[in-house]
Amino acid sequence: MSDFLSLSKKRRSVRSYKKQQIDEKVLERILDAARMAPSARNSQNWKFIVVKDQKRKEELTAATKGQSFINQAPVIIAGVGLESDKVMSCDVPTYAVDLGIAMEHIALAAADEGLGSCWIGAFFQDKVKEVLNISDTAKVVALMPIGYPADSPKEKERKSLEEVVSYDKF
Q1: The pTM is what?
Q2: Is the pLDDT of residue 74 over 90?
């Protein structure tokens, strides 16, 4: 099995974190992986907000409909699209695709460093923007707590390839 396939199988959603801090060089490598992600027309029209302040993490917890595990993580990264009005010719917003790719780069880089993460898409956009002082023209695509897992991983359950792949037609 390739290293990448092993890494993709290793990555999982973590909802319990140790109190252990993340070394700054490790965090920088994770953020650099996001920076290297592809984007529409290479615009890199994003901002990654790294939240470490405990009070702010608690405010984000309230904005995530009470998902209290996120403030256990030493870091929460918000992926923000700076121009929410741009659309690709296929009628899909560029910020959503670009940040989806970049945030997954973060999740995989974190897993490669022995860290856990969790995609958070259940949040109140207006409240997160208020907590993080984000402009009205931008869109928060995801929040991602990152830290050392406090629990042991269980094997991921996934549909078979036959259920999710077809060839030549739907």
Answers
A1: 0.93
A2: yes
